[in-house]
Specification:
The protein is about 45% helix and about 5% strand. The chain is elongated and about 75 Å long. The chain has 18 helices and five strands. By secondary structure, it is mainly α. Strands 3-2-1-4-5 form a five-stranded parallel β-sheet, with helices on one face. The chain has three domains: about 120 residues, Rossmann fold; about 110 residues, Alpha Horseshoe (Serine Threonine Protein Phosphatase 5, Tetratricopeptide repeat), CATH 1.25.40; about 160 residues, DNA Cyclobutane Dipyrimidine Photolyase, subunit A, domain 3, CATH 1.10.579. It binds flavin-adenine dinucleotide. The site of flavin-adenine dinucleotide has 28 residues, from helix 7, helix 9, helix 12 and helix 14. Pfam families: DNA_photolyase, FAD_binding_7. It comes from Actinoplanes teichomyceticus.
């Protein structure tokens, strides 16, 4: 009988192990109302990706079956209607995904259907490499990266040329694409993702030079396509591995961070609420007013405000800006990382539990950083990674008239100039350790 491919965050036909094997495949996507918490930005990207995938499948003689409800119940029901002997789903790591897999396991046993858990969300499945001493996951990145880079990766799954769908199944309507919140967010879909990957591979060799240059803005911007599986992480990693330029190698290392946080999450699914190192999770302040200034990009520290405004405009933020803004919230203002993480999660199109929570905990010092007490001096960061202030002026129009690096310290401008700017003075630090403000 056919096999039900229960798509989740693998919205592609290239290198998708769900489509492997000789049996006819019935691709199913279930919109789960329990995921109603998906932000407007991510919902829009998801719906565009579904529409794109449906188009691709139709062109190959198949279709995407779309249902609303509980993915487990819908997959079992469709298996019953089509006489499918197997349901396949990609292994995934969040608490939600692990619960879904457990329920699928129980229900397929009850209905005598085979369950196949396929790889494909990460380059290397969590648990494929393990540290010594019986631990289930790596806590430190560098040894993980060594093991990851030297592990045997699976081969790419062939792209199906033709997919026959069993007759008589209503495909179901795609929901209308909702408006996103961020006007400049990237459009969803495998077609768009592949176009961008192809362009990216042409400039990847420069990545080691300028991935931290905020004004140059020369990172791949593929994160949302990886988040929804419009691109296969393995395919991207293999392309980078085949290129021995320092840029491609630096890029490969960044991709390994993604796998790293996925294997942390597999072992520790409560990552978005519980600290990895409880002893470091203390003394947070709860200051709604300061939190709101940070969210709105009105802290009075230009590099922080530029990042926070890019987040809202584009549903994306440069990695360097994510580090600076997250460190500013947790280490400068002393505010709990959890509201910060939630704010990012609301806006980021690439927002996902492992990467968002893992990086927030890293920055707050409760996570996998081997130097958890490090501080980021935002001004020094700005001078280094936005040397001429181009990034700041791009996102903070109130400061457009301030030339060069002076834009990073408006509090040092002559009084008359400063008073003419419609821009706030810097928020006070909770511990008065902001020596950089007076420097
Ligand atoms: P590139 O620089 O081109 O990197 C290539 C790919 O490597 C990325 O697409 C991403 O998949 C992976 N990658 C790069 N850096 C990291 C990293 N530090 N951790 C994990 N994977 C990485 N990334 C997300 O995908 N989702 C999130 O929700 C997320 N939240 C973050 C929150 C904070 C506080 C910080 C500091 C970082 C966060 N990141 C997150 C990681 C990183 O900022 C983004 O992956 C990156 O900026 C995406 O842009 P890009 O595709 O151009 O990245």
């Amino acid at each position: 009988g056919p096999r039900i491919a229960l798509l989740t965050r693998d919205l592609r036909i290239h290198d998708n192990p769900l489509f492997a094997g000789p049996d006819p495949v019935v691709p199913l996507f279930v919109l789960d109302p329990r995921l109603g918490g998906l932000s407007a930005n991510r919902q829009r990207f998801l719906h565009q990706s579904l529409a794109d995938l449906r188009g691709t499948l139709r062109a190959r003689g198949a279709d995407l079956v779309v249902r609303h409800g509980d993915p487990v119940a819908e997959a079992i029901r469709l298996a019953g209607r089509t006489g499918a002997s197997t349901i396949a789903v990609a292994g995934d790591v969040t608490a939600y995904a692990q619960r879904r897999e457990r329920r699928l396991r129980a229900e397929t046993v009850r209905h005598r259907i085979q369950l196949e858990i396929t790889p494909g969300v990460t380059v290397l499945p969590p648990g494929a490499v393990r540290p010594g001493g019986g631990a289930s996951s790596y806590r430190v990145f560098t040894p993980y990266f060594k093991a990851w880079a030297n592990a045997g990766w699976r081969g790419l799954t062939a792209t199906p040329a033709n997919l026959a769908m069993p007759a008589g199944i209503a495909p179901g309507d795609l929901p209308a694409t909702p408006a996103g919140e961020s006007p400049d967010a990237v459009p969803g879909g495998e077609t768009e993702g592949r176009r961008r990957l192809c362009a990216w591979l042409g400039q990847i060799s420069r990545y080691d030079d300028d991935h931290d240059d905020m004004a140059a803005d020369n990172t791949s911007r593929l994160s949302a396509y990886l988040r929804f599986g419009c691109l296969s992480a393995l395919e991207v990693a293999l392309a980078a591995r085949a290129d021995d330029s320092p840029g491609a190698q630096a890029y490969l290392r960044q991709l390994a961070w993604r796998d790293f946080y996925y294997q942390v999450t597999a072992a520790f699914p409560r990552l978005s609420t519980q600290p990895l190192r409880p002893a470091a999770d203390r003394d947070w302040r709860y200051d709604d007013d300061a939190l709101r200034h940070w969210q709105d990009g009105l802290t009075g520290v230009p590099i922080v405000d530029a990042g926070m405004r890019q987040l809202r405009a584009e549903g994306w933020m440069h990695n360097r800006a994510r580090l600076i803004t997250a460190a500013f919230l947790t280490k400068h203002l002393g505010i709990d990382w959890r509201p910060g993480l939630q704010w990012f999660f609301r806006w980021l199109v690439d927002g996902d539990v492992p990467n968002n929570s893992g990086n927030w905990q890293w920055t707050a010092g409760t996570g996998n950083d081997t130097r958890p007490y490090r501080r980021f001096n935002p001004v020094r960061q700005a001078q280094r990674f936005d040397a001429q202030g181009v990034y700041v002026r791009r996102y903070v129009p109130e400061l457009k008239g301030v030339d060069g690096p002076a834009v990073h310290q408006p509090w040092r401008l002559p009084d008359a100039v400063r008073r003419g700017l419609d821009y706030p003075g810097p928020l006070e630090s909770h511990r008065d350790e902001a020596v950089w403000l007076r420097a």
